[in-house]
Structures are given as C-alpha cells and as structure tokens.
Design brief:
The protein is mostly helical and about 575 residues long. About 50% of the residues lie in helices and about 5% in strands. The strands form 3 sheets. Strands 3-4-5 form a 3-stranded antiparallel beta sheet. Helix 2 links the parallel strand 1 and strand 2.
C-alpha cells in the first residue's frame, strides 16, 4: 500500500506541482531538468517510409526541422487503412481491431462494417478512452530530452505509413512535430519490445490529455494544442494499435547513440595518432605488409587511417632511441578501434532497417495475392485474405498476426557495439597509464621540460580518473540476460530489455568521451614535449590542429570533446568500407 501511495504522490507531483513551479518561475529540482532543443532553420524532411537517414533523423530531432509525407507514403497509408476496414467488413478476424489484444485476442469487439453508426460510435468511445487513459502514464521519471522524444515521433511517423492508421492520426503526428508540441513520455514502462507504454502518451497529447511541452515550455496538452491552433484528435478504430505498437523508442535511443558514437570513434582515431607521436612509437603494426597479412576490412581501414594521420611526422624518421615495440595497448589500439567501427557499422545497419520498415502487429499488406507464395493459398492463410470491394476501391491483400515487434537483431547489435566500445576503452585506459612509465617513454617530463612547463600541462599530472571511468564502463559490459516473464495471462512471455540495453550504450559512449578527453590531454602534452625535445620534429597536420584547438579551447576538455565534431580535423582520405543496410 505504501508503495502505491508513493507512486500516486510522484504522479501528482509530475502532473500538478511541476507546471505550478514553472508558472511562478522557480527552478525545477535537478531530477526534472528538461533539455529543450535549440531549433535551427532547414528544409522539411520528406518521409517516404524507406529512405530516412540518420542525418535527417538528427535534423528532425535536434534541429526541429519539419516533416511531411511523400505522396506515395501518404497514399500507402490511406490504402492500408482502407484495407483494414474492408477486412472487418469481410469478416476477417483482425488482431487489435475487431478482435481484442493480448489475452483478449479471441474476444470479438464488433462484427460487420466498422463505419456503421453503431460500430463507429463504439470504436470511437473505446479509442478515446484508451488515449485519455494513457495520460496517466507510468509511475516514475519522465524522458527529459526533447530531441529523444522528437526522434521517437519522427521514426513512428515514417514507419506508420505501413500501418493502418487513420488519415487524421497520421496528420496529427506530423502536426505535433511541426508545431513543436512534445508529449511528456515516461522514461520507464517498456520491457523492450513494442514500446507500448511509452508511445501511448503521444496519443494522450493528441486528444488533449495530460501534459506536453510547447516550444520547450511545459503546460497541459490541451493548452499546447490550443496555442498551436490545433484541435484535439477525434480518434477512430485502429489508431491506438497503429500508433503505439512500435519499437520507435528503442530505435530512437540507438540512433542518437550512433551519432555520438561516430564522433567518439573519430576522436579515438585522432587520439591514437596523437599518442603514437607523443610516445615516439614504432608504426610497423600499421604498415601495409602487416595489414595484408590479416585482411579484416575495418581493421585494415583503421590502420590505414591512423597511418595517414601520422604521415609526414617524425615517426617515419630514423630515431636510435625509438624502442622496437610499444606496449600492447598502443600496438593493438587500431585493432580495437577498427573492431569498434565494425560493430558501429553493424548497429547502424540494424537501426536503418528499423526506422524504415514495419514492426507492427498485425501486418496489413496491400496488393499481396494468394499466388505470391505457396503458403498464401492454403485454407489457413486464406482466412486472412481480403478480397476487396467497391468500398475500398477493390484493394486486396492480407492482414496477418506476427511478432515483428520483437526487436532483434537490433537488440543484439546494441549490446555487441557496447561491448566493442568497452574493449576499445580498456586499450585507451591502459595506454594512458603507459605514459607514466619511462620504460616506454624513455624520458620523464622533467628530463625535458622545466618545472613550470610540467605544471602547466594537465596531461602530465596523472590521476585515478581514467581507471575510475573505465570501472564504470566495465559495469555496463555484461550482456543483459534474456528475460521471460509470463505477463498478460502468459500471452506476452518474452522481454527484450532494449531500454536497459540502450541506456547502457549511452552510458558507455559518454564514458568513452570522458576517457578520450583525458587521452587527448595526455597525448597532446607529450607531443609538445617531443617538440621541445627536438624542435626539428614534424607532426601530422590533423593531429597538430586538434591539439592546437584543444589548447585554445576555454572550459573543460570533456566539454571540448563533446561539443566539437572531430570530422573537421580529419582529412577526407581513406573511405570507410562499404556501409550496407540502407541510406545515411
């Protein structure tokens, strides 16, 4: 009872006290720190359902650019909706429409034409009740990042063109994005497949229930719609299923992590090239004969990239003091980083497939005929065939129950990339501490620099910070064990836990950036030392530019790394191995 009372109190605070606090201009508690986007002008993104790129998703999510459906996508959405209505007219049993969902899957909700007055009134009452009830949300914290919520809505707007959503719902989802009405979504409540509880709150905003943010300011959803000049959605029929049966939450979290991870991997390559020059390293592990002996494309690419970054530096000059072989963490770093790039590319492929295809149950497929595949003409499959009539312009197809909401292989690739980053991070951490050992550096900072010069360089200080950060990384590397709780009368007995998996990924990416900030600071300090040691020494142009920018940046090194795209320092150079799996 006490737990339930606490949950009710937390919900009351979120729904009542937060708007009241904001109304009088008082700061919110840190646990409720909402992060609004800073809109940037740009052309609208046209959603087709099949070629949304990660760059476009970022523009919608972070920059606030508008969206619209292509004519083909809008027509496909309309036709799919019409086919669903026709299925009910023909007596085809449709999960989550004329039949119930979950443990109610064999319960008939209505029969006959869904547009008949009695059925239409029943469905509208049911649908409105579902959307309004969703405003209660889940107990606990809310998503505090406007960009993440916008990414969720953008993905669903793109993939919903394959589902039987009413034209009004389809348009309302675009309107929320284009007017910057951001529903308040629960951070918890999904078991990682078909993020129903999270996406349901979008429906609540559409009918003016619960809270939302309008232009970054929290208010009631009804007031947000009013200010935007929109009327609450008058829902109908299958809209609840079409909106919320999706893994858009997991896909959005993975997509946003991918962008930051790309920058982390670019920084890692720059930092390794800087470290090699700071250590006065041997570059033989990066050379062509070594790489062709083990032709893994991403490993070879990364080694070639690092070699290109040190080209023209003193590392290619003869030096009698250069040791024959670096510590393993330096020798193997390009292997760990190339492997992380490979895992990044695999995750990118899965994300692009996820944001450009259907993950809804049931699947409503227009134009598919019994002769298209041997099983479709069997009596079992013909039960779900929609023959078409004048009412749906003679569209035909199938409406089939499925498990497309099971988010694999995306879930596997999220964990694989998280683990790959951790295996890269251990090399970054170890090579940082190798700079403290003159067995590898040959000299100590005070052998070359004055006491004041040593003090001025944070990179010579050494600390426990890197080891501490890596311990946090280690804590996120164990895969989430497969879970099976027989919930909803034992019908829904698998859970994918993509929420937990993507949270871990974000945490590891953030910690990787922190490690790389320390690494850059250390490597750049040692590059300066090598120049003082011998003023004739040259360094790679990109690495020198990055170290100069780091030295001239105001504020914390981690802030510089997080706010600066390293692509600006990297030459075009060697193209990545082919990126399969879609656009972007």
């Amino acid at each position: 009872m006490m737990k339930n009372a606490n949950r009710r109190a937390a919900g009351l605070m979120a729904r009542v006290l937060v708007p009241a606090i904001m109304a009088v201009g008082l700061p919110l508690p840190s646990a409720w720190a909402y992060t609004p986007i800073v809109p940037k002008p740009g052309p609208a993104v046209i959603l087709t359902g099949h070629d949304l790129t990660l760059e476009q998703l970022g523009q919608i999510a972070r920059d606030g650019v508008a969206v619209s459906l292509s004519p083909a996508a809008r027509q496909r959405s309309q036709d799919t909706y019409d086919l669903l209505l026709e299925a009910a007219r023909e007596g085809v049993p449709v999960y989550w429409f004329n039949r119930g969902a979950g443990d109610q899957r064999e319960v008939s909700i209505f029969s006959g034409d869904p547009l008949s007055p009695a059925n239409k009134a029943l469905l509208e009452k049911i649908q409105l009740g579902r959307f309004q009830h969703s405003a209660l949300g889940e107990p606990g914290p809310e998503i505090e990042d406007e960009a993440l919520v916008r990414a969720i809505m953008a993905i669903r707007a793109n993939t919903m063109t394959y589902e039987a959503a009413s034209p009004a719902l389809t348009q309302m989802l675009q309107d929320l994005l284009n007017h910057r009405i951001t529903p308040v979504l629960p951070l918890r409540g999904t078991l990682g497949e078909g993020d129903l509880a999270v996406l349901a709150a979008i429906g609540a905003t559409m009918v003016g229930s619960g809270d939302a943010y309008y232009q970054g300011q929290r208010m009631t959803a009804a007031e947000a719609l009013r200010r935007a000049g929109l009327h609450p959605l008058h829902p109908f029929g299958a809209d609840d299923a079409a909106l919320i049966s999706s893994n858009a939450y997991a896909a959005a979290r993975a997509a946003l992590a991918l962008d930051k991870a790309r920058r982390a991997l670019d920084w890692a390559d720059l930092a390794l090239a800087i470290d090699l020059q700071g250590m006065n390293s041997s570059v033989t592990p990066l050379s062509l004969p070594v790489q062709t002996a083990r032709p893994y494309p991403w490993l070879n690419w990364d080694a070639g990239r690092i070699m290109g970054l040190v080209r023209g530096s003193y590392l290619l000059d003869d030096d009698p003091h250069r040791i024959i072989q670096d510590p393993e963490s330096l020798r193997a770093s390009s292997i760990r980083q190339g492997s992380a790039w490979q895992a990044w590319a695999a995750l990118r492929q899965s994300v692009l497939l996820a944001i450009n295809s259907s993950d809804h149950n049931p699947a409503t497929r227009i134009g598919v005929s019994p002769g298209d595949s041997w099983e479709l003409s069997t009596p079992q499959m013909m039960r779900y065939y929609v023959r078409g009539s004048d009412a749906d312009h003679h569209l035909h197809g199938y409406v089939l129950s499925n498990a497309n909401w099971d988010p694999y292989p995306l879930a596997n690739e999220v964990e694989a990339f998280t683990i790959a980053l951790g295996n890269m991070d251990v090399a970054v951490t170890q090579r940082l501490y190798r700079f403290e050992n003159p067995f590898f550096t040959v000299v100590k900072p005070r052998d070359v620099l004055t006491e004041d010069q040593v003090r001025q360089h944070h990179g010579f200080r050494g600390s426990y910070a890197a080891a501490d950060i890596y311990q946090h990384v280690q804590g996120n590397l164990n895969p989430v064990p497969p879970e099976g709780n027989a919930i909803v009368a034992t019908v829904e007995d698998l859970q994918a836990q993509t929420n937990l998996k993507t949270i871990r990924l974000h945490d590891v990416v953030d910690d990787t950036m922190r490690l790389l900030a320390i690494d850059l600071q250390t490597g750049c300090a040692w590059m300066d030392l090598r120049h003082v040691q011998d003023a004739k020494r040259a360094f790679g142009a990109a690495t020198q530019a990055a170290c100069t920018a780091l030295a001239g940046a105001s504020g914390h090194t981690t802030s510089f790394v997080n706010t600066t795209d390293p692509a600006g320092y990297l030459p075009a150079g060697l193209p990545r191995p082919p990126l399969s799996g879609g656009p972007g």
